[in-house]
Amino acid sequence: VTGSLPDGCTFASLASGTSDSCVLTDIASTAGTLTHTMTVAAAENDPNLADNSASSSTTVEAAAADLSLSLTATPSTVLIGDTITYTLRVTNTGPAAASTVTVSGTLPRCTFKTIASGASKNCIKTVTATTAGTLSQTMTVSAKEYDPNTVNNTATSSTTVSPGCAVASGY
Predict the structure, then answer these.
(1) CA triplet 62, 64, 66: central angle to 5 degrees?
(2) Which of 15, 54, 65, 159 is most buried per CB count within 10 Å?
(3) What separation, in Å, do the N-terminal and C-terminal C-alpha atoms of the chain show?
């Protein structure tokens, strides 16, 4: 038996009306459809060559790392000139480890080399409030691996920035 797998099977003899089998194992290196075609041949004359080949296809999924992101601002209300601390928490629910993890958006970028399946990592960023109103920050996480659920990859946090009070002088 020969085909597209590296090692074939060899049978010393096969009597008429009987069958035999062998198991060949392949390790997929990329995602996509993996198709193997195997062909059988013998030294004897075969009156029906049409049934001497068979193919099998398997869908290979990419490694999956289901990431999620949360973004928390502390405190939630500040005065102009106050510092706001943002905690970004990336969680990987797997099943694979996530590599080349990047969190980017309106705050400076956070990067992690890897996050194991079932693990979380935090990144802390600080910002000084400079303008009254609502200060919103939005960040998105991504990784090298396929993420089967991207709905939870973006987080937004809003902080109310008040102008503060003017101090009267000259009483």
Answers:
(1) 155
(2) 65
(3) 102
- Per-residue pLDDT reduced to its tens digit, 89-119: 999 999 999 999 999 999 999 999 999 999 9
Q: Is 120 helix (H, G, I), strand (E, B) or coil?
A: strand
d(Cα 58, Cα 32) in Å, to the nearest integer? Answer: 8
Are the C-beta atoms of residues 109 and 123 closer than 8 Å to each other?
Answer: no
Query: Which residues lie across from 4 on neighbouring strands?
Result: none
Among candidate residues 126, 131, 125, 94, the one with its CA nearest the CA of residue 111: 125
CA separation for the pair 11, 103 (Å, rounded): 56
Residue 64 tokens, joined: 């999956």
Distance between CA atoms of residues 50 and 1, nearest Å: 15
Cα 154 to Cα 68: distance, rounded to the nearest angstrom: 8
What distance in Å separates the CA atoms of residue 42 and residue 11, rounded to the nearest whole number? 10
Predicted TM-score of the model (pTM): 0.65
